[in-house]
Amino acid sequence: MGVSQREVMAALASVKLPEGGDLVSQDMIRALSIDESAGGASVRFVIEAPTPEVARIVAPLQPQAEAAVRAIAGVASVQAVTTAHGPAAKPAAPAPSLKIGQHPTPHQGGPQKLAGIDRIIAIGSGKGGVGKSTVSSNLAVALARQGRRVGLLDADIYGPSQPRMMGVNRRPGSPDGKIIEPLTAHGVTMMSLGLMLKDDEAVIWRGPMIMGALQQLLTQVAWGQLDVLLIDLPPGTGDIQLTLCQRTQLTGAIVVSTPQDVALLDARKALDMFLKLKTPVLGLIENMSTFCCPNCGHETQIFGHGGVRADAERLDLPFLGELPLTLAVRQAGDSGTPIAATDAPEAEAYARLAHRLIAGGMA
Ligand SMILES: Nc1ncnc2c1ncn2[C@@H]1O[C@H](COP(=O)(O)OP(=O)(O)OP(=O)(O)O)[C@@H](O)[C@H]1O
User: Fold this and answer.
1) Read out DSSP for 98-154?
2) CATH architecture entry for 5-84
3) What is the ipTM of this complex?
């Protein structure tokens, strides 16, 4: 069997950048080609840095990247080039002066469309910690791998976790102090309030400030042309959910829950909220459905099993699938490379979910 693109990308993901993330999570790999011949595979790729300044930092890592690919069984030769995309930044470019967290501007009329964005899907849950952010990041990556132009907005303003899960920690630029340039990771255009805050800085805002911040993240970020924008909501049924559903034309919402009764109780409240706000519910996902012991293979249903499917049937809503609880999913999220970006068996469930949404015209 030949050398696959996935194997090469996985090897390149092992090359860490000094400022955080790696060559793949920072979306620097271009023009990857693998030519198989009798003597083995010749692999070529370009490391494209966003600016000449970053290229100077990344260039010394090229030998390490080549060595990582050369170590893959079946690779005979590796050729890489480091280039910079775009002109050199002006010296001492002003730091974004954009102030996130202002009062919302008055709004008239019903929910608005966002220019350039074809579909918007909100991903919510009733209870916290059920895996809504994990599902959002993995689904975004799985959709991008299937060729969709995907954006991911971390609207979990009190506990933004997407920067860590997607492996980005650069502060987004804002050359004019108004428009925020989103970052790219694993083929996904992303933005999170977490990228604008210092580590460990808490957000202590009242409702209007939160709504203002959400409005800024939706309208001041240069999202570009997207097939779908996924919005990772905070848990519960608060200001963010209300503002989003009332102001923005959503394609629909997906609700994530574990099968545990206490999670289901809260998930039903989230569903009720979406129904009351007339946001179509695209379906329910059961996360942490079963746990398969990596040592002995024994399956345990830690949080129960099947409760989300039963609720979907009872409410006549689509059941979008079950996702297992595995160590690999947690580790992948913590390392900044969602499991859906890898060849691990767990990636398959996200690929199926992405395929289902694309086939249904939802993504
Ligand atoms: N299927 C899974 N297998 C293993 N670990 C998982 C899985 N889903 C989520 N986790 C882990 O559970 C924790 C909580 O997940 P996550 O942050 O995605 O939940 P959340 O619902 O977004 O939480 P919050 O309420 O904080 O927004 C994380 O450490 C994550 O890595």
Assistant:
1) ---S-PPPP--SSPBPPTTB--EEEEE-SSTTSSHHHHHHHHHHHHHHTT--EEEEE
2) 2-Layer Sandwich (3.30)
3) 0.97
